[in-house]
Structure formats: structure tokens, C-alpha cells
Design brief:
With 487 residues, the protein is of the alpha+beta class. It has one domain: Outer membrane efflux proteins (OEP), CATH 1.20.1600. It is 59% helix and 12% strand. It has helices at residues 2-12, 59-71, 73-93, 148-214, 220-254, 283-289, 291-312, 357-423, 429-463, 477-484, and strands at residues 99-111, 115-118, 121-124, 128-141, 317-328, 340-349. Residues 1-12, 44-48 and 470-475 have low confidence and may be disordered.
Length: 487
């Protein structure tokens, strides 16, 4: 019986009142909705994996990604938040061990002597002085009999893992936004180059029309229409320059630079839009790849552990303490055995009546868990939606680009043919104006379709969790990068 009593704290030390944790279930799915014209891509070993943006074949984009990873403030904030959570986990773990304190003191005291009045003056006896030296060492420990500390640590660890996933998600979001802004900027370069050529062509058309008007061949209205077309194209050109400037400043902020001094040279006609094939993983794999799903699942685990913390409050807490030291009026004799002192004690505390406060906290913890489960399932469904939507977008935009290319080629031919007929006096200038507007619209629509395909590829890569492999947040890569980040 005595042995059983002695072993009771040891047996209770492994007790936990947190519910057994299992990852919440999600709607089952083993494939994506069929999309006409889509074939699953299987990248070769030499294809980009983690650094997925290299698939676009742009050295400037690669350099910007490196700069953004090192200097982006949103990622730096997420890294600091992760390190904060990691420190909180270490702090929670420290509660498993005793707290040891040490202190020393020197006290000087003096008591005044007695005074008396006699004939001829005042006399007094000598004052009493003393010095006391003390050294003490203490320790206190609260054994985790009912799992409160263990579940607090589990909660902190799951929160730390959620913050690590948030860091990965912040980095993935940064990469996607930077890639989208950069590709859109290059599309703006292409639009500017196309509009510049169009303005030059309209200026030549205005010259020809003016010459024909001066020769009495064409009416003045033809000149007005040519001027209108030219001014409209010039206005579009200035608007596109403004759009490019906005993308440039957005990129500057993403890479942590001052927009006032940041510039990206135009590449003009050198733009060659590359659209990589994106292999789409099965739904079950998406759950392992997407950092936002990983973060949501870890928050569920943290909420589950918190239930155990609140349940443990129904049971008493036990505190053990021990103190020892030396106390002496002489420094030389401070550590003599006769100057030693010590004490050992224990304390048990239990709340007898709280009018339902603990029960309310348990219910609150359970509902917090239910809320996190619902959030996890919603994040998962949204992830499936992202993949399916961008999968459809990739296929449809490819077809649209093909149609827009055909339309642009046909419109350019029609524009050239009709203008030649106008110079020969066969057709009216109104026909030329109509076909010029159609050709310009088709050229701009083709460029937009090309960048839309690129941006859809970026969105699909983000939807599947980034790159062609599982998100690298479980093997410590993100943690090592966060620890290495500037403090």
C-alpha cells in the first residue's frame, strides 16, 4: 500500500485530459473534374521544383525573387512571429522542471545606547552594533500530475508549427504576387511597344490623309478622323505607361526597395511569354502541400490541447519547495555547520467553488476547437476550388490565346489591305478607321491573353502549394531560414 501511494504521482504524471486528437476529415475526392483539352503534366528531373518561377525563363524575375526573399517585410514579420512562437514553446517546456533561486545578503544594524543627565553634562553608554551574513538556495517544483503543463506545451508546439506554416504561406504569397506583377509589367512593356508602333503608323496615315486633302482628293473629315485615331492611340499609350509605373512601384515594395529609386528597364519587343506546364497533384496530396492547410490543421491541434489544459483545472495542484542556506554574524564562520539552516515543504491547492467558471472555460475551449475544425475544412475546400478554377482557366485561356492570335493576324491583314485601297481611292476613310480600331483592339487583346495565361499558371502553382513537390515545411527548411533571418 505504501509503495502504491509513493508511485501515485509517477502514474499521474502521464495523465492528460485532452481528447485524443485526429486530423479532421474532409470531403473525399481522388481526382479533379475533367477539363477538355487538359493532359496531366509529368515534369522531368531537370524541371524546376522548389524555385518554380525559374520555369518562366527570366533571369530578372529570378533575381527579384532572391531580393524579395531577403528583404520583404511581410515575410520578415512572419519569420519573427514564428520565432516568437518557438520561444513560447521553450518557455512552456521550462515549466516541467524546478525553479532554482539563490540569494545572499549582508545586514548591518546599530542600536543607540542609554543617555543620562548628570551634574556637569550629559553622559551616554556606547551604542550596540552587529553584522549578519546570509546565503540561501531555494527550489520549487509543481509536478504535472494532471497534464496541464503537457497540454500547454502541446498547444504551444502546435501553435509554433502553425506559425511556421504561416511563414511558408507568406513566402508563397509573396512569390506569387511578385511573379504576377513582374509578368504584368512585361506585358505592359509589350503593350507600350505595340502602341508606340501603332502611333507611328497613325501619324503616317495622318500625313497621307492630309496630303490627299490638300490635293483635293479627300474630304476634311478624313483628316479629322485620322487625328482622332492618332490622339486616341496616344492616350492609350500614356495610360499603359502609367500602368507599367504602378507595377514597377509594386515590385519595389515587394523586394523591400524605395519606389522612388527603383527601376526596371524595358525589354520592348524582347518579351517572349513562356507558360510552363503545371503538374496538378491529387486532392489528397494538396492537403500535404498547401501551407495554409497545414496552418489550419495545426490550429485545430492547438485548440484540442487547450481543452486538456482547461479540464486539468478541476483537479488540485501540488507544489513542492525546499530551501537551505547559512546565516551567521561572522563572514569567516558563515559556512560552518552551526550556521546552516534548511526547510522542506509541500502545498496542495484546490478550488472548491467557482460557480461554473471552470466548466464555462471547458465549453469555451470545446467551441474554439469546433471553430478551428470548421475553419480547417473551409480552407481545404477553398484549396480544392482554387485548383479546379485555375485548372479550367489554364485550359480556357490557352484556347482564347489561340483565337486571339488568329483574330490579330486577320485584323492586321485587313488593316493593311483596306488602307492600300483607301490610298487607291477605292474605299472611304471611315472603313479604314473601323478596321484600324479593330486591329489595335485585337493586338492588345492578344497580349492580354498571353499574360493572362502566365498569371493563371502562377495561380495554379500557388493553388497546388508551390513548385512540383510537397511544401518543404516539415523537414525544417522553413525553420532554418527563419532562424537565419536578420533579427
Amino acid at each position: 500500500m505504501k509503495k502504491s501511494i509513493l508511485l501515485l504521482p509517477v502514474l499521474l504524471a502521464g495523465c492528460s485530459f485532452a481528447p485524443h486528437y485526429e486530423r479532421p476529415t474532409t470531403p473525399p475526392a481522388d481526382q479533379w473534374k475533367p477539363v477538355e483539352g487538359w493532359q496531366p503534366a509529368t515534369p522531368a528531373d531537370d524541371r524546376p521544383r522548389g524555385d518554380w518561377w525559374t520555369a518562366f525563363g527570366d533571369a530578372t524575375l529570378n533575381d527579384l525573387m532572391v531580393r524579395a526573399d531577403a528583404h520583404n517585410n511581410t515575410v520578415a514579420q512572419a519569420a519573427a512571429t514564428y520565432r516568437q512562437a518557438r520561444a513560447a514553446t521553450k518557455g512552456a517546456r521550462a515549466s516541467f522542471f524546478p525553479t532554482v533561486t539563490a540569494n545572499g545578503s549582508v545586514t548591518h544594524s546599530e542600536s543607540g545606547g542609554a543617555r543620562s543627565i548628570v551634574q556637569g553634562g550629559v553622559t551616554s553608554s556606547g551604542s550596540k552594533k552587529s553584522t549578519n551574513y546570509s546565503v540561501q538556495l531555494g527550489a520549487s517544483w509543481e509536478p504535472d500530475l494532471f497534464g496541464s503543463i503537457a497540454n500547454t506545451v502541446s498547444n504551444a508546439k502546435a501553435t509554433e508549427q502553425a506559425r511556421l506554416a504561416d511563414l511558408a504561406n507568406a513566402r508563397l504569397a509573396l512569390q506569387g504576387e511578385l511573379a504576377t506583377d513582374y509578368l504584368s509589367l512585361r506585358a505592359a512593356d509589350a503593350q507600350i511597344d505595340s502602341l508606340t508602333a501603332t502611333v507611328a503608323a497613325y501619324q503616317r496615315a495622318l500625313t497621307i490623309t492630309s496630303n490627299q486633302y490638300n490635293a483635293g482628293i479627300a474630304p476634311h473629315s478624313d483628316v479629322y478622323q485620322a487625328q482622332t485615331q492618332l490622339a486616341s492611340a496616344q492616350s492609350d499609350l500614356e495610360g499603359e505607361k502609367r500602368t507599367r509605373a504602378q507595377f514597377e512601384t509594386a515590385i519595389a515594395v515587394l523586394v523591400g526597395d524605395n519606389p522612388a529609386v527603383f527601376t526596371l528597364p524595358s525589354i520592348g519587343t524582347a518579351w517572349t511569354p513562356v507558360v510552363p506546364d503545371v503538374p496538378v497533384a491529387l486532392p489528397s496530396v494538396i492537403l500535404q502541400r498547401r501551407p495554409d492547410i497545414a496552418s489550419a490543421e495545426r490550429q485545430v491541434a492547438a485548440a484540442n490541447a487547450q481543452i486538456g489544459v482547461e479540464k486539468a483545472a478541476f483537479f488540485p495542484t501540488v507544489s513542492l519547495s525546499a530551501d537551505g542556506g547559512f546565516n551567521n554574524g561572522s563572514l569567516a564562520g558563515l559556512f560552518a555547520s552551526s550556521a546552516s539552516l534548511w526547510s522542506v515543504g509541500g502545498q496542495v491547492a484546490e478550488t472548491l467553488l467557482d460557480f461554473g467558471a471552470r466548466s464555462a472555460r471547458v465549453r469555451q475551449a470545446r467551441e474554439a476547437f469546433n471553430a478551428q475544425v470548421a475553419n480547417y475544412r473551409q480552407v481545404t475546400l477553398t484549396a480544392f476550388q482554387d485548383v479546379q478554377d485555375n485548372l479550367v482557366a489554364s485550359v480556357v485561356l490557352k484556347k482564347q490565346e489561340d483565337f486571339q492570335r488568329q483574330a490579330s493576324i486577320a485584323a492586321d491583314k485587313s488593316e493593311t489591305s483596306l488602307f492600300d485601297q483607301y490610298k487607291a481611292g477605292i474605299v472611304a476613310y471611315t472603313d479604314v478607321v473601323t478596321v484600324q480600331a479593330s486591329a489595335l483592339s485585337a493586338r492588345r487583346a492578344l497580349i492580354q491573353a498571353q499574360v493572362d495565361r502566365q498569371n493563371a499558371a502562377v495561380a495554379l502553382i500557388q493553388a497546388v502549394g508551390g513548385g512540383w513537390q510537397a511544401a518543404d515545411i516539415t523537414n525544417g527548411a522553413e525553420a532554418r531560414r527563419a532562424e537565419a533571418a536578420p533579427r
